[in-house]
C-alpha cells in the first residue's frame, strides 16, 4: 500500500522531478555559472530513501518523453526528445520535505547525502547519453537558480 503525504511517498519512495518548461535557465555556485540551457526543461530532482537506479531510469524516460512543448497547432504534443531542447538538472533535497505539521519541515524521507549524490550523478550521466545539451547543478552546494518559465508550465513527476 502506498500512502501519500504532501506529495511525498511515505511507504516506498519515489524519485521526484519538478519539471519546468523554460526559454532559458541557469544555475550558479559562488557567483559562477555552472550550468545553462536555452529552450528546454529545468528539472529540480529530489531523491528519497529507497530510491534506486531503475527509478532514476524511469524518471529520465518520463522527463525525456513527457509532452509539454507545443506542436504546430499550439497543443502540448511534443517532448524534449522531439524538440531537441536542453535539460538542466538541479538537485533539491527539500522536495522530499514533510510539511504536514509545525512550522519547520522535516527531512526524514530524504535520501542520505551520499546516496542522493550518487543517484543525481547517475541520472545526469544517463541523460548525457540521450540529450545533446545537458547541464546540472552541484549536489550539496548553495545554488542560485534563474529561469524563465515558459507558459508557465510546471509538472510534478514521480518515478
Describe the structure.
The chain has helices at 53-65, 80-83, 113-128; strands at 4-5, 8-9, 16-29, 32-37, 40-46, 69-70, 76-78, 86-91, 134-136, 143-158. The protein has one domain: D-tyrosyl-trna(Tyr) Deacylase, Chain: A, CATH 3.50.80. The protein is α+β, with helices and mostly antiparallel strands and 159 residues long. The longest helix has 16 residues, at 113-128. It is globular.
- Report the CATH C-level class: Alpha Beta
Total domain count: 1
Average pLDDT figure: 92
DSSP strand count:
10
Distance between the termini: 16 Å
CATH superfamily, by name, is D-tyrosyl-tRNA(Tyr) deacylase
So how many helices?
3
Instruction: Describe the global form.
Output: globular
Order of helices and strands: EEEEEHEEHEHEE
If you consult CATH, what is the topology? D-tyrosyl-trna(Tyr) Deacylase, Chain: A
The largest pleated sheet is described as: 6 strands, mixed
Helix share, percent: 10-25%
CATH architecture verdict: 3-Layer(bba) Sandwich
Uncertain regions: pLDDT < 50 for 5+ in a row?
A: 1-11
- Spatial extent as radius of gyration: 15 Å
Defining traits:
single chain; 159 residues; alpha+beta; D-tyrosyl-trna(Tyr) Deacylase, Chain: A; six-stranded mixed β-sheet; two-stranded antiparallel ribbon; 3 helices; 10 strands; globular; disordered N terminus
